[in-house]
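dude i think i finally got it to work??
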Amino acid sequence: MRGPLFYAKILLFGEYGIIKDSKGLSIPYNHFKGGLKNFPSASTEAEVSNNEILKFSNYLKTLEASLVQFDFERLEMDLKNGLHFDSSIPQGYGVGSSGALVAAVYERYAKDKITILENLTREKLLTLKGVFAAMESYFHGNSSGLDPLNSYLSLPILIHSKTHITPTGIPNQGLGKRAVFLLDSGMAGETAPMVKIFLENMKETAFQNMLQNKFIKLTDACVDDFLSGNIKGLFKNTKSLSKVVLGHFKPMIPTQFQQLWKQGIQTNDYYLKLCGSGGGGYFLGFTEDIDRAKLRLKDYRIEVVYQF
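look at this
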């Protein structure tokens, strides 16, 4: 048996800001996907995955029954039969590998689950987000629940604030030269240490002010520009956001990429931003001319996510 597929996600805007109530925009990315298989496999990856899901299931038993309940009898039987998560989503790359697994486990084993076929009211979306946040905390120590929610719904999600999220539409893709792309750093990153650095920085008044008066304002503007199709505003604000991240989130940008980051701002060939928590994995790029950006970044692996 194979369950439904769950896609990777890309948080176009909102990394770190959504912790402090900025807007955010998250989209599914179907280039990478995963699904549960409950039959034996000889591969080492399947064995590792089976063992990880076993540990995850033990964690799920500690969650409040009032929040979510699971069919552990069925889950344990499937684990004995070789249950594993067959996934192409790279781990530690900021595209929601743990979120897809969480969504898959909830879809198959949660009792009285909220399904994607229901009328998804604001209350139901917030309930799902809360359940997914509790589930995904096993992997990161802390989770907003947005990655699994995006993977579960397979819809773009607009984050208005912590207590207000809605599915949204995004402008249609076209064949223009403008593009959003992923830049492969060639190394995995870890979410928990990066979030810890951010929370330490948040104890400083100057950092708090920068976050509120620059980072969050620019993030909100980028979300609004993208959804409304304000191209000129989008690239102006994305450039400013890229500058702010380079200036104030240096620990999240590996040293060897800081010059590349600066080069994009100076040449206007592309603007880089974090994809997820940073520290490695993918970076997200925005360019008004994808051919020019590819030429400038010819020594790096690039994947176009969205063209317009």
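The two ends are 39 Å apart (CA to CA).
im so relieved honestly
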